[in-house]
Amino acid sequence: MERVQTLFNIKYPVIAGGMVWCSGWKLASAVSNAGGLGLIGAGSMHPETLVEHIRKTQQATDKPFGVNVPLLYPEQEKIMEIIVSEGVKIVFTSAGSPKKWTQFLHDHGIVVTHVVSSAAFAEKSEAAGVDAIVAEGFEAGGHEGREETTTMALIPSVRKATGLPLIAAGGIGCGQQMLAAMALGADGVQIGSLFAASEESSAHEAFKKTIVETGEGGTKLMLKQLAPVRLIKNEFYKKVEEAELRGASVDELKELLGKGRAKKGMFEGDLFEGELEIGQVASIINRVEPVAEIMKRLIVDYNSSLEQISKKVFVM
């Protein structure tokens, strides 16, 4: 796992997911200051907003940080130009082909990591020249791949497919799960939902409270005809479920989704009509707390669990 620390020049192999409407400069800088790698979520930002968040992050930390760029959003050229001009050194790309931007970013001395949901996409990402891979399992929040492969099954498969530094994502919200990911072959972990519920997250306080209150079975992967996304079961979710059960067309689903639905839910706090994206691991998140406390507990629990597991040696 030292490969992840070396690649990003960080103390702990923990990356905060670059989540839309949650991953602003406060969260990114807090995670970096706590020894991990903070990411700014560019997917929910206009170019001028991204500039503001990059500059505020640079002022708030002298540690490495990066920007997550979902490739399905518009204004990619402007976003990449800003990343270069503002001196960002680490970029995570997702939801698209890494071929388009990896060489451009490398030409400007930027480390590139791509998010995948299968071993096949991991191989394609390595062929495209990325420096590391995030393998995200079915448990994750936000937009996912269509394979529905769980993290437990995905990480060993991707580990066999590529020798690149491998970061596990999806269903990781405590030190024990972090250790499990390492045992499966990961070099580090990317954590989203747990940081979405942090004090420094830019998400609305009502959404954070809902994350804490979400129990087992409280989320479901929906909108597979458009772009699969895991949602908390609220009134909007029920409308999507009803539409999909009656065989709604792609155009009908697009109309139902509309524009700004995720912003309405996660950033503005509309818990009924908003799109509330979160991972299954929300069921074990029981409080909103500062990033520093979250990171401390992750590492303490990881080390404690490692010590306990080391005692469980089977003699042949």
Features:
316 residues, 11 strands, 14 helices, eight-stranded parallel beta sheet, 2 domains, alpha/beta, TIM Barrel, single chain
Short description:
This protein has helices spanning 2-8, 25-33, 47-60, 76-85, 102-107, 119-127, 151-161, 175-183, 193-196, 205-213, 235-245, 250-257, 261-267, 291-310, and strands at residues 14-16, 38-41, 65-70, 90-94, 111-116, 132-136, 142-143, 166-169, 188-191, 219-222, 229-232. By secondary structure, it is an alpha/beta fold. Helix 5 links the parallel strand 4 (90-94) and strand 5 (111-116).
Word description of this protein:
There is one protein chain. It is globular, with a radius of gyration of 19 Å. The protein starts with a helix and ends in a 6-residue tail after the last helix. The strands form two sheets. The protein has an eight-stranded parallel β-sheet with strand order 1-9-8-6-5-4-3-2. By secondary structure, it is of the alpha/beta class. α6 packs parallel to α7 and α8 (175-183) packs across α14 (291-310). The longest helix is centred in the last third of the chain and has 20 residues, at 291-310. It has helices spanning 2-8, 25-33, 47-60, 76-85, 102-107, 119-127, 151-161, 175-183, 193-196, 205-213, 235-245, 250-257, 261-267, 291-310; strands at residues 14-16, 38-41, 65-70, 90-94, 111-116, 132-136, 142-143, 166-169, 188-191, 219-222, 229-232. The chain has two domains: 2-203, Aldolase class I (TIM Barrel); 205-281, no CATH class. The protein is built from 14 helices and eleven strands. β2, α3 (47-60) and β3 form a beta-alpha-beta unit.
